[in-house]
Prior knowledge:
Layout: H1 8-16, E1 20-24, H2 33-37, H3 39-57, E2 62-66, H4 74-83, E3 88-91, H5 99-102, E4 109-114, H6 117-131, E5 138-141, E6 147-148, H7 154-159, H8 165-178, E7 184-187, H9 193-201, E8 206-208, H10 211-214, H11 223-231, E9 237-241, E10 247-251, H12 254-260, H13 286-294, E11 303-304, H14 318-343
Parallel strand pairs: 1-2, 2-3, 3-4, 4-5, 5-7, 7-8
Antiparallel strand pairs: 6-10, 9-10, 10-11
Helix pairs in contact: 1-3, 3-4, 6-8, 9-14
Amino acid sequence: MGVRVSTSSLAGAVANCGAAGTIASVGLPPDTEENRRDVPKSCREHLQIEIRKSREISPEGVIGVNIMVALSNYEDMVRTAAKEDVDFIISGAGLPLSLPEFAEGSRVKLIPMVSSGRGTKVLLQAWKRRYNRLPEALIVEGPLSGGHIGGHSLEDLKKGAFVTLETSFADVLGVAREYGDIPVVAAGGIYDGSDIAKFFRLGARGVQMGTRFVATYECSAAKEFKDVYLKARKEDVIFIQSPVGMPAKAVKTKFTEDITAGRRKDFHCSYQCLRTCDPGKVPFCIAKALINAVEGDVDNGVVFAGSNVSRVKEIVHVKELVDTLVAEAEEAMSVALGEKAGTI
């Protein structure tokens, strides 16, 4: 949902429905000469703008920010979000081992994104030892998610040789319970209320969803971007290797066909956004590709999406989507409870 897909308009609308609205912090500044003169400053200022706009839309709602560990200005963005008094910070694309240090003195709730029990244990041990604190929650993201996918190689993902979200969730939940009552949230491939109910029954305290919320009027992505979702077939969902250093899931476009065929996309690095990216060696600029797509130039861009994107058939308002998801989840939970009662 990064690079201007989940901004204040979507986060505020989600928060108004009683859910937690999340602003993606990466790629917010427009590509202008002024912004390129001081990229960290423009990133910081545009994050502040989006947070404040979201508060105007939803003064009483829960608003947070997703900040990738791989960002070159990671510390600055965390400190900015904390200073703006967001309700929570989600942090993944690497283990956020130093996150508590950068948010020290704030009330912000810290929510690392993890993909395995092993990584979770490393993180919890480090936080306990260094900062004498634990996360307010953990998000377990599975391989059906859109965008960057942690904990798996590109080759394994292409072969289908990956650990399912259900398995990873159980693994992380077991580690979390060793440290007390840390809420665990499931993410990646959750499409409808029955999926939500399933993970609640497995012990989840919440779910994180992205793909469904792109197909809303409140999402700031261009119409052409959303049209890719509406037209996507199951076979159009592919894996690519991202300059972030991780595999990623996207919908097939002319751009992805070129890069998977080994055609390099020459570029000048305007963003200096990723610590893990060497502009002289990577075959394309992920920031530019994602910006092109979100602005509507999908033939020259990358459109991230989850595995269930082919099931998306219409654009709806956020409230309609949330109401539908809640009703479906309540019905699925009721049916499951009835079936359980019938076996007693």
